[in-house]
Amino acid sequence: MKIAQKTIKRLKSNYHEWVLVTGATSGIGRELALKFGEAGFKLIITGRRGMELEALSAHLSDEYNTESIPVQGDLSIIEDVNKLFSEVSHLNIGIAILNAGFGTSGKFRASNIEQEVNMLDLNCKAVLIMAHHFANKMKAQPKKGAIVFMSSMVAFQGVPNAANYAATKAYVQSFSEALAVELKSEGIDVLSAAPGPVASGFAERADMKMDMSLSPEQIGVPIIEAIGSRSTVLPGFLTKLLVYNLRMTPRWAKVQIMGKVMGGFTKHQRSLVQGTMSKS
Ligand SMILES: NC(=O)c1ccc[n+]([C@@H]2O[C@H](COP(=O)([O-])OP(=O)(O)OC[C@H]3O[C@@H](n4cnc5c(N)ncnc54)[C@H](OP(=O)(O)O)[C@@H]3O)[C@@H](O)[C@H]2O)c1
Q: What are the start-end ranges of the E strands in 56-154?
């Protein structure tokens, strides 16, 4: 899928040419970086894996003649967030895509609490600090800018078996919806992208086995096309189907249904525990 020429024209006329994509080493972030590179934007790409960042930077240059700045760092650590700010301080950032994030799954009581807190640090705290920084930076720029948040379809109700992950995305969705209104008068556009299941590095890290999923290629362009034209996008047909199907369902029932869905995604965790118990 390619970005429509009229969208490229609109984005180039409305925003400065530098696009920041956090979490660009795989999945959705990588796809967004490639699409912006192909469209002739300059990129700042981040991730913890230096080799993947360098490889993406080389690919952007070889394939699209695109200039990019790789910034390696763990954004759950405040020093690395500050390092990112200082490395881009001299640039006008047109679009900041706060995509880096991860999920967890399984029974909350059995969860690794340090990992859960780390997820809050990355999915919420880092996003909060970066949004504050880039909103202020954009306010001072001639063409202002746009901030894109990475929410999820799990943001719209509680999700048993992924309680904390869904809560981090509920934070992102609510925060983004409010900022979309607040920052509009400041000339800054805000978009929340709320995909359904996407085949990326996400499921393995979250220990989920998702039955059906979209590819990053199916959701990248719909997210980009929604920048500056809407406040929330449900990218891809499957995402729309899943969210619209539940739209008229009472919230308590949505929690039950999503609990069943996530129960299916984490079934292997219980068969593993049962297998271990029956052997001992
Ligand atoms: N896949 C889905 O089903 C789905 C659905 C809805 C929303 N989302 C959201 O979409 C976003 C992107 O996920 P994805 O599906 O593309 O997963 P992914 O393939 O695992 O990509 C996650 C990206 O975030 C980066 N990242 C992870 N931890 C980081 C940290 N501590 N510091 C800096 N960067 C970090 C990773 O880079 P390094 O490993 O190099 O650090 C990677 O580039 C996430 O916010 C996720 O919650 C995903």
A: 68-72, 93-98, 145-150
Q: Residue 1 has what pLDDT?
A: 86
Residue 127 tokens, joined: 């996003």
Q: Of all residues in the chain, what percent carry a pLDDT higher than 90?
A: 92
* Ligand 1 atom nearest 76 alpha carbon: 31
Q: Are 207 and 111 in contact (CB under 8 A)?
A: no
Q: How far apart are the CA of 195 and the centre of ligand 1, in A?
A: 13
DSSP state of 154: G
- β-bridge mates for residue 45, sequence order: 21, 70
How big is the chain by its Cα radius of gyration, in Å?
19
CATH, domain range 5-279: 3.40.50.720
Number of H helices, E strands in the chain: 12, 7
Nearest ligand 1 atom to the CA of 195 is 6
Nearest residue (CA) to ligand 1, atom 17: 202
This prediction's pTM: 0.96
Instruction: Tell me the pLDDT tens digit for each residue of 106-141.
Output: 999 999 999 999 999 999 999 999 999 999 999 999
The pLDDT-based confidence of 276 (bands split at 50, 70, 90) is low
pLDDT 10s digits, 221-234? 999 999 999 999 99
131 CA from centroid of ligand 1 (Å): 17
Residue 220 CA, ligand 1 centroid: distance in Å: 14
Extents of the domains making up the chain? 5-279
**Closest residue by CA, ligand 1 atom 1:** 198
Q: Which of 46, 48, 17 is nearest to 57 (CA)?
A: 46
**Ligand 1 pocket by Cβ (under 6 Å):** 23-29, 47-49, 52, 74-76, 99-103, 122, 150, 152, 195, 197-198, 200-202, 205
